[in-house]
Design brief:
The protein is α+β, with helices and mostly antiparallel strands. It has two domains: 2-73, Orthogonal Bundle (Multidrug-efflux Transporter Regulator, Chain: A, Domain 2); 83-218, no CATH class. It has nine helices and ten strands. The strands form four sheets. Strands 1-3-2 form a three-stranded antiparallel sheet. A three-stranded antiparallel sheet has the order 7-6-8. A two-stranded antiparallel sheet has the order 4-5. Helix 6 packs across helix 8, helix 7 runs antiparallel to helix 8 (133-147) and helix 7 (113-128) crosses helix 9. The longest helix has 16 residues, at 113-128. Mean pLDDT is 83; it is low at 210-231.
Length: 231
């Protein structure tokens, strides 16, 4: 669903100048500015949920961080860092009872940043859906071959089911994905929204580093096209 620039400014209370300054500073991606023909010539629209969430985040954080720092924090790219099972126990968003399932499903004890985001998403799924630990392990096993190549958080993670058999897919936010109509989409999660929350909440705890910062560590991610999805 889209929102027009006029409605966006009215709903958020920001000015035209602020909106375009945040665009220049890299806080709002240029491809979120969608031009469409109108009776006056052209009008600008935005993906409604994403732009409203982003502006709320900027308004909340702009007094704590410089615009340059915010642009790095809100970037879909993160730094190289491995997470141990001890680290997973620190992250409140990961259900502690699922950690052994993630170790088994991913078949290792050290995890990439993107794998941590998937664990948070699966923990959300577990809270909201009637999904078993065995099914969580199967989903992790089914995805693990793709995740090590991912270098961006600009993806949507979708859980779907057929008769309580659960499956997952990951695709880019710009992609058009067609799933078999016999499958029921249970929930979808934007990985970049999880990433933003994680980087902000645990920035000092995990010593995240963004670009040229000198005294913190970095995290990076990429994605591949999931098998069996038409784009």
């Amino acid at each position: 669903m889209l929102i027009s620039k006029k409605d966006l400014l009215n709903e958020t209370g920001i000015s035209y100048g602020q909106l375009y300054r945040w665009k220049r500073e890299g806080l709002i991606p240029e491809d979120w500015f969608i031009k469409k023909p109108s009776f006056t010539g052209q009008e600008t629209f935005f993906p409604r949920t994403k732009i409203l969430n982003r502006i709320r985040a900027i308004q909340e954080l702009k007094d704590k961080y410089s615009l340059e720092e915010l642009a790095k924090i809100l970037s879909p790219e993160v730094a190289e860092r491995n997470f141990t099972t001890d680290d997973l126990n620190i992250i409140e968003e990961i259900q502690k009872g699922l950690i052994p399932a993630f170790v088994k499903g991913f078949d290792k004890n050290n995890f990439t940043y993107i794998e941590v985001l998937i664990m948070i998403a699966l923990s959300d799924f577990k809270r909201d859906c009637d999904i078993t630990i065995g099914q969580i392990i199967e989903i992790a096993e089914g995805l693990r071959g793709y995740l090590s190549n991912m270098k961006s958080t600009g993806y949507i993670f979708v859980l779907f089911d057929k008769n309580k058999d659960y499956y997952a897919t990951i695709y880019t936010e710009q992609a058009q994905v067609y799933l078999d109509i016999r499958l029921n989409i249970v929930k979808s999660i934007h990985l970049d929204e999880i990433s933003n929350r994680l980087k902000l909440k645990y920035r000092k705890k995990f010593n995240f580093k963004f670009d040229n910062e000198e005294d913190e560590n970095t995290v990076f991610i990429s994605a591949c096209e999931p098998k069996g999805v038409t784009i």
